[in-house]
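Meet my pick.
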Amino acid sequence: MPGKKTDIQDAEWICQLVEHGLVRPSFIPPKPIRDLRNLTRYRKAQIEERTREVQRLDKVLQDAGVKLSSVASDLQGKSARSMLAALVAGERDPEVLAELARGTMRKKIPDLERALVGRFGAHHALLVRTILAKVDFLDAAIAELSEEIERVIAPFDREVALLDTIPGANQRAAESLVAEIGADMGRFTTAAHLASWAGMCPGNNESAGKRRSGKTRKGSKWLGAILTESAAANGRSHDTYLGAQHRRLTGRIGYAKANKAVGHSILVAAWHVLSNGVPYEDLGADWFQKRRPEAHVRRLTRQIEALGYRVAIEPLTAA
């Protein structure tokens, strides 16, 4: 068997497998989707590299005793970039540096003066200058890739718009979902089929009273990353069904497994909106309470009784 191929060689490698009869053609996405997949995956890699560079930047500043990130939430904001440029140019006076703050950051000038007192040396300046140059290069690369993705994905604008209606799946996530699972759900007979193919469907392996591992099969790491990020975004939402599901599961099975479960729900929703051609309809953050109101009442009662109070539940009668 030939050796492992890189992502860029995916298309040629797949075609060779089809020619040798090792892969069923029905599971090979069309060329526009393969091209889109290469673009979105490479953009994702560049975004992750940019994140690592920004983390390196903060580490260099911390090593120099400069606590800029404790005051400025974004080291790539205009105020922070102006201060960093001045540091690289040789300015060391905290008061002068703090005066470079713009907009709402000017309210934090006293905090900035304290944060910018450090031991920033020549080697720190070299590292920061190099990191900032690389971040700027990556920003330009990401922007160029996004423009090309916008051009290539134009025939699938309707599918992207439908996926964008799913909570947590923004424009970029919707583009990546189309690239990873395609726009035609005819290859997946059911939503469960898609979830199984993607490795997002844990099993329930139990026989003769013995429970074995229900670990999911391995799927695309790129698709898994998209779904995990979208699921985590739902964990910060307080007015959606997926947000309520995430909070409910986090308390029971932990944050990581909750992300997996909500990611599964997002993938199922994606199959339905693409198969039926209709936008996502949210069930609401109170759906779990409406589904089993008695269980919700019992849970609240236990919580109140744990605080040392006695609870008497009486249903309201219609006026």
In short: The mean pLDDT is 86. The beta strands are 206-207, 210-211.
